[in-house]
UniProtKB/TrEMBL annotation:
PANTHER family, sorted: ABC TRANSPORTER ATP-BINDING PROTEIN, ABC TRANSPORTER ATP-BINDING PROTEIN NATA
NCBIfam families linked: nodI, PRK13537.1
This protein's GO CC annotations: plasma membrane
Family: Belongs to the ABC transporter superfamily.
Recorded name of the encoding gene: drrA_1
UniProt EC number: 3.6.3.-
Main location: membrane
Annotated ranges, domain ABC transporter: 69-299
Protein name from the UniProt record: Daunorubicin/doxorubicin resistance ATP-binding protein DrrA
Entry keywords, A to Z: ATP-binding, Cell inner membrane, Cell membrane, Hydrolase, Membrane, Nodulation, Nucleotide-binding, Translocase, Transport
One Gene Ontology molecular-function label: transmembrane transporter activity
Any one Pfam family match given in the protein's UniProt record, by short name: ABC_tran
Organism this protein belongs to: Pandoraea morbifera
Annotated spans, Disordered: 1-48
CDD domains tied to this protein: ABC_subfamily_A
Length: 368
């Protein structure tokens, strides 16, 4: 699920080109910091962040003392169907907080309400200490957003994409002369500064999107599945960049479908399903509380007689397709039984976050 769903169309006034850094980026048209539109010409998620008037940045920064994000009993329903159902969250400054859930769990709607792009039916939100939606435009000035899909402007170079976004946040040319080169270095894109977006690999585009979200030096980053579609090398590079931001004290709210990503990056996690919180804690806490044991995976078409022999040796057995998951306190009896069966393939491993997620939300595939 993506935060690129249709928003109310907003008219963004034309602003002057960024000057020397942008290298005449206007090219006869108003820059579109939200990137190219889709086939339905729907305004992108980022558009809603940039049409607010300039805010007093220090007031938002000074408010980031008690909680970066505070959500209390948040509710939203569409056509009578609850999408977010009495959800409460507390994200501390400097924390990487993961919001996990299957498709349709309410993650995207929650993010939209946090940013004041959707009005809640009930509940309270404070973003950087400021009430949302009442002071959402000011709160958003201290937030950087990385949407699930790249919305970079293909008509501009890497440098120009950063510069145009900086101008929409009201950065001066002096500020951008400092910020743009620093962000190019952060994203490891110095050699691609004058390349068009279409010349970049998928990993480069994601790093540019992350760098663009940092143009206003935000206190809080909201990342919607930031490594979706990337190969392992590109994914690990994004993780490295995010860890460097965490070391600087940035607060990160992350949605992801990669459990390894959540386990590596997040201090705490909240699992939601059908709009409700069903579990919360650190990754080790969740694994210990929800699984608390090792896992032996048995692959292939296993005879029912073998499963019957394994059943009393395991805490429980779950089946997904042709894989049987045996949750065990002591793996030796199960492994010994399997070793006596010629041709049976199995894997003994430690429990992980994916086991937690699947236990809490089920193993069946869900549609968007």
């Amino acid at each position: 699920m993506t935060i690129h769903a249709t928003l109310l169309r907003r008219n963004i006034p034309h602003r002057p080109s960024p000057g020397p850094i942008g290298d005449h980026v206007d090219r006869g048209k108003a820059p579109n910091p939200a990137g190219p539109r889709g086939a339905n010409d729907s305004p992108s998620f980022a558009t809603g962040l940039l049409d607010a008037p300039a805010a007093k940045q220090e007031s938002a920064r000074s408010a980031m003392t008690d909680a970066a994000i505070e959500v209390v009993e948040l509710c939203k329903a569409y056509e009578g169907r609850p999408v977010v159902d009495h959800l409460s969250l507390h994200v501390a400054p400097g924390e990487c907080f993961g919001l996990l859930g299957p498709n349709g769990a309410g993650k995207t709607t929650t993010l939209r309400m946090l940013l004041g792009l959707v009005t809640p039916d009930a509940g309270n939100i404070r973003l950087g200490g400021l009430p949302v939606p009442r002071l959402a435009p000011e709160a958003r000035r201290r937030v950087g957003v990385v949407p699930q899909f790249d919305n970079l402007d293909p008509d501009f170079t890497v440098r120009e994409n950063l510069a145009v976004f900086g101008r929409y946040f009201g950065l001066s040319r002096a500020d951008m002369r400092e910020r743009v080169p620093a962000l190019l270095a952060f994203a490891r894109l110095e050699s691609k500064a004058d390349a068009r977006v279409g010349q970049l690999s998928g990993g480069m585009k994601r790093r540019l999107t992350l760098a663009r979200a940092l143009i206003n030096n935000p206190d809080l980053l909201i990342l919607d599945e930031p490594t979706t579609g990337l190969d392992p090398q590109a994914r690990h590079l994004i993780w490295e960049r995010l860890k460097s931001l965490m070391s600087e004290g940035k607060t990160i709210l992350l949605t992801t479908h990669f459990m390894e990503e959540a386990e590596r990056l997040c201090h705490r996690l909240c699992v939601i399903d059908a709009g409700r919180k069903i579990a919360q804690g650190t990754p080790p806490e969740l694994i210990a509380r929800e699984i608390g044991c090792d896992v032996v995976e048995v692959f292939g078409d296993v005879p029912h007689s073998l499963l019957a022999r394994l059943a009393p040796l395991a805490e429980r057995i779950e089946t997904s397709g042709e894989t049987h998951f045996c949750y065990v306190r002591d793996a030796a009896p199960v492994v010994g039984t399997l070793q006596d069966q010629p041709g049976v393939r199995y894997l003994h491993r430690r429990a992980n976050l994916e086991d937690v997620f699947l236990k809490l939300t089920g193993r069946e595939m869900r549609d968007e």
